[in-house]
Amino acid sequence: MQAETPEDAHKNAHLDTETLIVGGGLCGLHTSFELGKRGRSHMIVEARRRLGGRILSRRLSSPSGQEVGFDLGPAWFWPGQRRMERLIVELGLEADVVKQFGDGDALFEDAAGQVRRGLFGIAMLGSYRLRGGMAQLIEALAQTLPSSSIRLGWTAESITWQGEMQSEAPLQVTLQSEDGPRIVTCHQLVLALPPRLAQQRLRFEPPATPALAEALRATPTWMAGQGKLVALYERPFWRSRGLSGDAISQRGPLGEVHDISPSMDPEGRNGPGALFGFFALPPSQRQAVEKEALERACIAQLARLFGTEASQPTQVWLKDWAFDPRTATDDDRQHMAPHAEHDLMLPEDDPWQQRILWSGSETASAAQRNNGYLEGALEASERTLRRLLG
């Protein structure tokens, strides 16, 4: 996107739109994508300087010259997730779908650091990824939207109901951008961001009722307490040793490890190879350790698991979502089970509940691999679109 000129800043200080979408992750972008296809006036604002939310991929060129991606956020979708399958087909990404590798033995490391092989039932075999990382999906969606409908680096701060609480009066959203405050007036407002983040960061005028505030605060943000490390290698050398790249550890610092190499070749001849792990350490312990020391401890663990070759990665990427202010709140930093599912139970008699379209993956149903997953983000978008389009 082009830098905004002073003239643009003045013109954009107060804007009007039919529908305002706050949050540029998969859910918000999909809603914008569908509204755009129907010619509906709308705007999408995102506090980050990039789109995607918790979808974050690192890219590089493979030896064959093809760009490949490695996910520091969500990486998988599964057969039968019809919304993801349909969207990938619609965006023409079928050729970039790769199956998750899972051939060979998985490993188990006990608390004393003893490693044994032959563990079953932990591979993500059967799931799918995108060769360019899940950011490929975000980019494909964004390319369908006019740049004029997207505002990056705009942080929503307050929402004001202009008129009687029971009326359909416009809503006024105050945002902060790098170039100063912005005010957007809209008739329909979609909050496509974690409920807990909305409760902590947004000011409602008139104030939200205690029941609504508590319902939002009580909904944990999916995977917000987690951190993820990716180690890149010239090739997935573990495969030639009959290992799947999957591991469970009781010692840590990583509690769960998987192969996210872009190639399905069992010998890994096409390179590169990549392992990623979720942290077993709670956020408070991760915060107490310098990032470089934490990375070294993770690489030492990968060497214990997969051999000395794992001690020499070509690149290491670490993303700790628990300390990303655009993702996690103080409540999310209380270590939680990585796959907890929660229904968002909003009080039906709260006026704000009737006026705001609460969206995002945390608002999806608690069906298997739905709430919190990419599929859940699309389900929430579909529900939102039914209300927007009547």
Main attributes of the structure:
alpha/beta; globular; 19 strands; FAD/NAD(P)-binding domain; seven-stranded mixed sheet; Polyamine Oxidase, Chain A, domain 2; 2 domains; single chain; 390 residues; 10 helices; eight-stranded mixed sheet
Kindly describe this structure:
A hairpin with a 5-residue loop joins strand 6 and strand 7 (115-119). Strands 1, 2, 9, 10, 11, 12, 13 and 19 form an eight-stranded mixed β-sheet that branches. By secondary structure, this protein is of the alpha/beta class. It starts with 5 loop residues before the first helix and ends with a helix. The protein is built from ten helices and 19 strands. The chain folds into two domains: 6-47 and 153-220 and 341-389, FAD/NAD(P)-binding domain, CATH 3.50.50.60; 57-133 and 224-323, Polyamine Oxidase, Chain A, domain 2 (Alpha-Beta Complex). Helix 2 (26-37) runs parallel beside helix 4 (135-142) and helix 2 packs parallel to helix 10 (374-389).
Give the overall shape: globular
Just name the CATH architecture of the largest domain: Alpha-Beta Complex
User: Unreliable segments (pLDDT under 50, ≥5 consecutive)?
Assistant: 1-6
Roughly how many Å apart are the termini? 32 Å
* Helical fraction: 10-25%
Total number of beta strands: 19
Evaluate the radius of gyration: 22 Å
- CATH topology name of the largest domain: Polyamine Oxidase, Chain A, domain 2
